[in-house]
């Protein structure tokens, strides 16, 4: 009886996760259609997206499905990482890991920027200046002619203080410059915190798939949900924890 109950709970959980992935996919497609005049799911060439993260490994832990989907749709994806991840004095190594991870995701090194500002340390106890983060993000949005920004939501997906600081900075940027700068032409896509469980389950799913076919080429599944065919454990393995 216990086995059947456990199986029922697991099945219910998997169905819930599938519904989350489905909603995520619909949200992304709606965002693309608002930014572009695309009439199909396979044309995102008019999209220039900026993924703003706090540390190396955020790009694959929290945003890999979205990034891979955008790259598949031929969108130009840039990454702005606001620290080199030096909390354990491994900044140089983690910077290279970020570049390697982005390469697997389909983002060339020329589109990856890693800042090393003394006032933006990799530290969950550090209070990042919202105005400073806003200015750094604004500079990149202008320079790259970005029309889509991807970053954390108000809870930072994992609750990390550096993550939530980025959310506050982006919201401040859009609020203060709305009248004199065109954020109305820029679509903001936030990684929702409730999807953390889905992200972790996705990593487990991809790891299990990787045991069977670890050499599969990265792409999105042909299913109706944005599950990453690439074994994401290969990305996570590039990072030090």
List strands and helices in order, with pairings.
Blueprint: H1 2-35, E1 48-53, H2 58-61, H3 64-72, E2 76-81, H4 91-105, E3 112-114, H5 130-144, E4 148-152, H6 156-159, H7 161-176, E5 187-191, H8 196-213, H9 233-236
Parallel strand pairs: 1-2, 1-4, 2-3, 4-5
Helix pairs in contact: 5-7
Describe the structure concisely.
With 241 residues, the protein is of the alpha/beta class.
Order of helices and strands: HEHHEHEHEHHEHH
What is the CATH-assigned architecture? 3-Layer(aba) Sandwich
Largest sheet: 5 strands, parallel
Structural class label: alpha/beta
Mean pLDDT value: 74
CATH H-level superfamily title: HUPs
**Number of helical regions:** 9
How many structurally independent domains?
Answer: 1
Contiguous runs where pLDDT drops below 50 for at least 5 residues: 208-238
**Can you tell me the CATH topology?**
Rossmann fold
Q: Determine the N-to-C terminus distance.
A: 40 Å
Structural shape: globular
Radius of gyration: 18 Å
> Beta-strand percentage?
5-15%
Per CATH, the class reads: Alpha Beta
Protein name: N-acetylglucosaminylphosphatidylinositol deacetylase
Organism: Scomber scombrus (Atlantic mackerel)
EC number: 3.5.1.89
Family: Belongs to the PIGL family.
